[in-house]
Each structure stands twice: as structure tokens, then as C-alpha cells.
Amino acid sequence: MIPLPAPKPEVLARRAQIVAALQAIIPGDGVIGEALRLKPYETDGLSAYRQPPLAVVLPTSTEQVAAVLKYCNAQGIRVVPRGAGTSLSGGALPLADAVVMGLMRMNHIKTVDYENRLAVVEAGVTNLGITKHVEADGFFYAPDPSSQLACMIGGNVMMNSGGAHCLKYGVTANNLLGLTFVTVEGEVVQIGGNYLDAPGYDWLGIITGSEGQLGVVTEVTVRILRGPEGARAMLAAFDSIEVAGQAVDAIIGSGIIPVALEFMDRPCIHACEAFAHAGYPLDAEAMLIIEVEGNVEEQDRLLGWIKEICNRFNPISLKVAETAEESLAIWKGRKGAFGAVGRISPDYLCMDGTIPTGELPFVLKRIGEMSQSYGLQVANVFHAGDGNLHPLIMFDANNEASFHAAENFGADILKLCVEVGGCLTGEHGVGIEKRDLMPVQFTPLELDQMRAIKGAFDPQWLLNPAKVFPLEGNPIFATIPVLNAA
Ligand SMILES: Cc1cc2nc3c(=O)[nH]c(=O)nc-3n(C[C@H](O)[C@H](O)[C@H](O)COP(=O)(O)OP(=O)(O)OC[C@H]3O[C@@H](n4cnc5c(N)ncnc54)[C@H](O)[C@@H]3O)c2cc1C
Question: CB–CB of 370/409 below 8 Å?
Fold first, then answer.
């Protein structure tokens, strides 16, 4: 790890001044300025990079958020909004001269309206917290990132997060109705409301996925759905990853939309089975988890069709979960996949790109070839039905060459996604991880138009400024401190 230089006295004096001003806005323990207490905030889910912030504020109300933003805007201080800090693209990574605004204390569910199937929740409510709150009444919140126990709805909105069950229900953007949004000037704005499709420009569409760069979300109105009568998962195992990719393509091409269609390759199957004991097929090169829902007749009919399609690709085995416990074990393995791969490699980079499902066999083959040529192992686990890839590139952060090879390998995978007609991001956002690859996907004009939107919301570029856009050659970023790799 490269040691960070000690802050200069003038930086410490300025920090003390800023912290005092922030404490006047947020009394009590809601402002952190001491180096040791800043440590938990110095990184996020992309833990290969770290950078302690200038200070952290933990507001408890929209009014406090507005007052902090107003002060920072007047003083020209940068602000990095933060939910749970689980971003895998470095979206919540602090800057040395920025205040991190943590929304985790705004964690109340304000209204549940079953009649209109919506809930109004504060930005710091966890994704799973919404479902837990309504499930006793037979409802749920559909988007289900694997990090759902920790990640917060404000972060989900800003990353437009997805999950295994988004194949049927759509991602965050498809399950949102409204936002309370605070501009960098400290103005509180209501976007959308309790109904579908607000009049005027699609502000909700612009703000969703904007990675904390346009304003701070303090409340979110989400759709809640009635839970299905039942659901059942099945496992389909194949002796080659390309063939498993072909089976995915055939299922999606047939017009059936399972609730979830997930893919795991051999390294991932072994890593997950070791802790989930879900009966994953250890002799397979690739495995699909396919879930359908409805009443028993509907489940049987859909599973019958899916089995028939899988049989065309000579599966090694097909196994339908017979009990709720078996289904749970199957999902325990899948949802814990990132942690499971963490047990078999000192470090890994989790890539996130999207491709047309018809390209799966080709792209998986190319990733295998790249793994050979870079000499780095890769485990594939991803939302196959949506064509959303998550190659986990294993490396050793203590070995600089290994780290750089992993970065280059990841960049090559993302370029390949664009080459085959896909996209640089699936659900993890751009953050710092993919900012320099943006020109692979977008023309200079398109990037300028996006920068113009950012500038219209945030003329001084104070909100999460070092993310999303390439740093190189952009004068607005001349003063951004270099981020330190761990
Ligand atoms: C083990 C693991 C599994 C994961 N699985 C998935 C998955 O299946 N699907 C998926 O989509 N993602 C997944 N992720 C990534 C991550 O959980 C999501 O991006 C999530 O939405 C981030 O939420 P957060 O609360 O942690 O936000 P943070 O990481 O704190 O922030 C994310 C971004 O949102 C901004 N932000 C946060 N809150 C606000 C706010 N209130 N107002 C304005 N800006 C804000 C931040 O500035 C940052 O740019 C996974 C991460 C991990 C570690």
C-alpha cells in the first residue's frame, strides 16, 4: 500500500474551519473531522482505491442536507454523496478536498400506501429493508441487488441498480415514481410523485443513474408489488460455457421470461458450493439458475418448456428445487457469489458490462482466451437473461504487475462489450472505474452534451466531480487530487 502524505498545516486549519461551520448546521455527532474516524469512509466497494475525505457529514433531515449543500456551494467545497458505500465502480470514493455526505442516518420508512402500491422511504433505507417492511402484508420491492442487505435506496437510484430478479421486473428506474431531490444550491425539489409518468421533461429519467453528480436524493417513492403465489428455481448444468450461453440465448429467444436467469462458470460454482452446500453440479463447466413464479400449474408449465429447451443443448444435469429450502440454498449460493470468490483469491475486480444475449457464447469464449493470455483466473457469475456480465478477475493487490494486468484485462472485456453492440455499464455505474473508457462508447459530442447537463445542475462541478467523465484533457478536472491505489 502506498502511504498517504500527512495533511499540510494549512489543510488542517481549513478542515477545522469547515468542520466548525458544518457542526453549526448538524449539531451532535453528525460531523466527522478526525483522521481516525474518517478511515471507514476512505473507500467503497472498489476497495483497490482509497482516499480519506476532508470531512464527513451525517445529516438526519432534508433540511440539514439542504443547509450543508448551500454552505458548500457558497464556499466552493466539493461534496461526495454516499449511501452504504457498496459501489463497485468507486462511485462513493471520496476526494481529499471533498466533504462526504453520508445519508445512512436518513433511514425511515415514511409512508406505505398499499392501495396505490407505493412506499415513500428516506434515502438511507436499505434495499432489503423496504421488502422486510411490507412482506408480512404480501408485498415486496422488486429490484434485488446482491448487496441488498446493505445498499441503500438512494444509492440504488443513483446507480440505477439491478439484480437477479430484474429480468422480469426491470431495474430501479422501472420501479420508481418520485424523488425528493436537493440541488447543489440547497433548493428542495419534488420530482415525479405518486403516479406514473410526471408531466414535462423526464427529470426522474435524468436523475436516475446520475451517480451523485446532479444533486442529493433524500426521499424516494418506490413501487411495491404483490408477491407471487409461489416460485421455484431449477439448475441446468452444461459441459461448456459456450453451450450454456447458447441455452440462455434459446430460452430468451423463445419468448419465455423467467423471473431470473443467472449464469455461473466452474470456478464460481465450486467457490459457491463450498459455503452454500446447495447441491451445485461440481462436474459442470457452467450452470444456469432459472427461476419461474406463479401458481403450481404455471410453474410446472414454464419449467416444462424451459427443460425442453435446455435438453436441446445436452445438459449434464437438470434439477428442479422441490422445497422452499432447496430454492433458498440455490439463491444463498448465488447471492453470496462475490464473497465466495473472495475466499479463493486475495483480490478480484468485478467487471460489469452488458451485451445482447445472442453474443453470450462468443463473448464468454473471448473472455476465456483473454484469461489465458493475461495469465489471470476469471470467474463468471452474472445476470445472463439481461446479458449483464460480471467477470470477476482474480489478482493479487500486493503485486503491482498483477493489479495492472487485472485493470487492462477488465478494460479489454468492457471494450469487447461495446464492440459486440453492448454497453460499458450494466448496473454498477461508471464511477472512477470506467470513466476513462467512456470515449470507447460515446463520441466527443455525446460526452459534451452529458457534461452540459452536469454543468446545468451543478455549475461549479462540486458534486462528485471526479467520476463518470474522463479526466485526461479536461480542464475542469485540473485541480482534482490524484486518487491513491492501495
Ligand atoms: C457484494 C456486492 C454485490 C453487489 N451486487 C450488485 C447487484 O447485484 N446489482 C447492482 O446493481 N449492484 C450491485 N452492487 C453494487 C452496489 O451495491 C450498488 O451500486 C448500490 O446501488 C450502491 O448503493 P449504496 O447505498 O452502497 O451507494 P454508494 O456506494 O454509497 O453510492 C453509489 C453512488 O450513488 C451516489 N449516492 C449514494 N446515495 C446518494 C444520494 N442519496 N443522493 C445522491 N447520490 C447518492 C454516490 O455518490 C455514488 O456515486 C454490489 C456491490 C457489492 C459490494
Answer: yes
